[in-house]
Amino acid sequence: MRGCLFVGFNHFYEHCWPTQFGHREKGEKGLAFRNCQLTDGIINRCSLDMCFGDGSVALPDGTKDWPEHWPMSRLSDADFANHLEKWRNN
User: Fold this and answer.
1) Domain positions in the chain
2) Interatomic CA distance for residues 4 and 2, integer angstroms
3) Radius of gyration over alpha carbons of the chain, in Å?
4) Sorting pLDDT into bands at 50, 70 and 90, what band is 1?
5) Are 47 and 21 contacting, i.e. CB atoms less than 8 angstroms apart?
6) What's the number of CA atoms in the CB half-sphere (13 Å) around residue 15?
7) Which one has a higher pLDDT value, 4 or 11?
8) Is the distance from CB of 35 to CB of 58 less than 8 angstroms?
9) Short-list 75, 37, 72, CA closest to 58
10) Which end of the chain is more exposed for a tag (fewer CB within 10 A), N or C?
11) What's the CA dihedral at 24, 10, 14, 62 to 10 degrees?
12) Residue 57 forms beta bridges with which residues?
């Protein structure tokens, strides 16, 4: 699942989410979310700073920090692809 782009992911699929994914300690970078509703359970199992998303992603209430490298606005398809590629290459 390394480097996957989840589009339209919501809480109904939370039970399928790996126990640990996108963790800093493992050096896993590249997971991306678009038009997704993330839950506390998903956020607790991955490090958002190792993932990419944009303003189309809904974080659960109480999430303290929007990842610094995530654009706050909903990006067009082309802009999302460009931002994601630049982020993955850094």
Assistant:
1) 5-89
2) 6
3) 12
4) very low
5) no
6) 1
7) 4
8) no
9) 37
10) C
11) 60
12) none
